[in-house]
Specification:
- The complex is a heterodimer of chains A (259) and B (297).
- Chain A is of the alpha/beta class and 259 residues long.
- Chain A has a single domain (12-253), classed as Glutaconate Coenzyme A-transferase (3-Layer(aba) Sandwich), CATH 3.40.1080.
- Chain A contains 9 helices and 15 strands.
- In chain A, helix 1 (12-23) crosses helix 2 and helix 2 packs across helix 8.
- Chain A is globular, with a radius of gyration of 18 Å.
- Chain A starts with 11 loop residues before the first helix and ends with a helix.
- Chain B is globular, with a radius of gyration of 20 Å.
- In chain B, strand 3, helix 4 and strand 4 form a beta-alpha-beta unit.
- Chain B has helices at residues 8-13, 33-40, 55-62, 83-90, 101-113, 128-131, 193-198, 256-264, 269-279, 284-294; strands at 20-23, 47-51, 66-71, 95-98, 117-120, 136-139, 158-163, 167-177, 183-184, 200-210, 235-238.
- Chain B is built from 10 helices and 11 strands.
- Chain B has 2 domains: 8-100 and 165-293, Glutaconate Coenzyme A-transferase (3-Layer(aba) Sandwich), CATH 3.40.1080.10; 117-163, no CATH class.
- By secondary structure, chain B is of the alpha/beta class.
- In chain B, helix 3 crosses helix 4.
- Classes of the chains: A alpha/beta (259), B alpha/beta (297).
- Chains A and B meet through helix 3, strand 9, helix 4, helix 5 and helix 6 of A and helix 4 and helix 5 of B.
């Protein structure tokens, strides 16, 4: 593989931003709901480049114009329409959304947990709660962002199924499967999808500087690894400039994922 | 027209132990904290709290008032998870009915509309159905031969039947209100407050300021900001700063320093005792004076 033209300085966080942005490629005019700094940068980068029709919220109760820098103060945002929480469900249940949630645990068939570690009746660690994960995952494309890939986060079976994976959706029937689409998982090590015959997790690409062996060792279940698996693509010079100079000059991305 | 003005203590006086109480707002935003604090220092106990959970849930749990919480999450926004809630759960001190946020919305909507349930895909396939074994599915009565089926995949489809969440009482906080019980929300999101009121037997507003009937809307604020009409309310109490330390724009933002102190106090029983003595087990005037001391104008 040629490395000509590669920017040796592309950080791990920047590879993650590119991987997140690519999750929204071809999404069209839908609400992108990113959780975390790096997915937020990814959604904004996608909107500024190959997915200009994406709809982004201000994190409160409105849709915002453009894709402003990540550290923009709320008072400086320009808003284009109201989006109170009650209206968000009109969007969720009509399917005009692709969310990227975080996952405290994710498993081989794409179940996600943000509710509790340990048995739900007596949690060892109480997490934030299922939030909208059950409904999101059976109504519109759903991806996940895991900034700390390890055998503790990539587990054989999650403790409390919050976001619904492929096997659980299939077992629940057509009501669950009709709009179910767990699209991508992006971690600090690589990109994953469920494009296997059994709808189990597959390595889609490994980030520059990460080995396949390292990913397999950090994963608590058998990961499908295609023979021809490639490296996560590098950012174009234009994308790199947008991330470094326009969207995140303060390098908040490096606080979420270190190189 | 009835004058519905009352005090925070009057509101708490209408509540009883064992009741199911809905609390408006969302996370650490526009929560009726003056009433929450008054409940904490009352003799009430064994409550079921229904909320888009924030420090209302954490404070009531830490004060030993709660038997059960119905929620989809408990968050402080700028702090991901309320540590008092975490502690109560990890020590097995409260029961929880944890559901998807959208299911929660439909539960309030169903109670408000007086139907026993509303159908949704939300919850299907998730552990919401296993951790709440009382939840049921419902099969669509419209089969493949029905003219009403849009997509064949929806013929006879099985969905979650989210039950109505009936409330004995609901309390919400607004920026302004009038003596008749109309409520005005000047921030961009009314959250689910109209549904909390609609789902409840007894409905109470607290508000920053009461103005005369008919004076809420005008040049400064369009009529749409008066999102809560008086058919939804039984009582209204004026309590300036009544949502402190949660965010209540445009009147005030979240008191982040205070919230941090509240959260930190969860780490140590002695610290919590000191916090409660200073800020919870005091009347509202004393509370306001102590907050004023922290944040001199």
């Amino acid at each position: 593989m040629s490395t000509a033209g590669r920017d040796p300085g592309v950080s791990r966080a920047e590879s993650c931003v590119i991987a997140c942005a690519d999750a929204w490629r071809g999404a069209g005019e839908v609400m992108a709901s990113p959780f975390g700094t790096i997915p937020s940068l990814g959604a904004r980068l996608a909107k500024l480049t190959f997915a200009p029709d994406l709809v982004l919220t201000d994190g409160e109760a409105a849709l915002m114009v453009g894709a402003p820098p990540i550290a923009t103060r709320p008072a400086e945002l320009v808003r284009e329409a109201a989006m109170p929480y009650r209206s968000v469900f009109d969007v969720v249940w009509s399917g005009r959304r692709h969310i990227m949630m975080m996952a405290s645990q994710i498993d081989r068939t794409g179940n996600q947990n943000i509710s509790a570690i340990g048995p739900h009746a007596h949690p060892k660690v109480q997490l934030v709660g299922v939030r909208g994960a059950p409904g999101n995952s059976v109504n519109h494309p759903t991806s996940y962002w895991v900034p700390d890939h390890s055998v503790r986060t990539f587990v054989e079976q999650v403790d409390v199924v919050s976001g619904v994976g492929y096997a659980r959706a299939a077992a629940a029937g057509p009501g669950a499967t009709r709009f179910h689409d767990v699209r991508r998982v992006v971690s600090n090590l690589g990109v994953f999808d469920f494009e296997t015959p059994g709808r189990t997790m597959r390595l889609r690409s490994f980030h520059p500087g990460v080995s396949v062996d390292e990913i397999v060792a950090a994963t608590g279940f058998t990961l499908a690894v295609p023979d021809d698996v490639a490296e996560t693509r590098l950012p174009t010079p234009e994308e790199l400039e947008l991330v470094r100079v326009v969207l995140d000059p303060g390098s908040l991305r490096d606080r979420e994922v270190r190189s | 027209m009835a004058d519905k003005r009352m005090t925070v203590d009057d509101i708490v006086g209408e509540l009883g132990s064992g009741m199911t109480i809905g609390i408006g707002g969302w996370g650490s935003r526009r929560k009726p904290m003056a009433v929450v604090r008054a409940i904490c220092r009352s003799g009430l106990t064994d409550l079921t709290v229904v909320a888009y959970g924030g420090p209302d849930v954490g404070l009531l749990c830490a004060s030993g008032k709660v038997r059960k919480v119905v929620c989809g999450f408990v968050t402080l926004d700028s702090i991901a998870l309320d540590p008092h809630w975490r502690a109560a759960r990890q020590h097995g001190k409260v029961e929880v009915m944890e559901v998807d946020e959208g299911m929660f919305f439909l539960g309030l909507q169903a109670a408000s509309w007086r139907v026993p349930f509303l159908p949704t895909r939300a919850g299907l396939g998730s552990d919401v159905l296993t951790i709440n074994p009382g939840l049921r599915l419902v099969r669509s009565p419209y089969g493949a031969d029905s003219p009403y089926v849009g997509d064949p995949a929806d013929a006879d489809v099985e969905l979650v039947a989210m039950p109505a969440l009936h409330l004995d009482a609901a309390i919400v906080h607004t920026n302004r209100a009038d003596p008749a019980g109309n409520g005005q929300i000047l921030s961009p999101d009314a959250f689910f407050d109209p549904l909390f009121l609609g789902a409840a037997e007894r409905r109470f507003l607290t508000t920053e300021r009461i103005v005369e009937n008919g004076a809420l809307a005008g040049e400064a604020h369009p009529l749409a900001t008066v999102a809560l009409h008086r058919m939804l309310t039984d009582g209204v109490a004026e309590t300036p700063g009544g949502a402190h330390f949660t965010a209540n724009p445009p009147d005030y933002g979240r008191d982040e320093a205070f919230q941090k102190e509240y959260a930190t106090a969860a780490g140590d029983p002695a610290e919590w005792e000191a916090f409660a003595a200073r800020y919870v087990l005091v009347d509202e005037a004393e509370y306001r004076a102590r907050v004023e001391e922290r944040n001199p104008r």
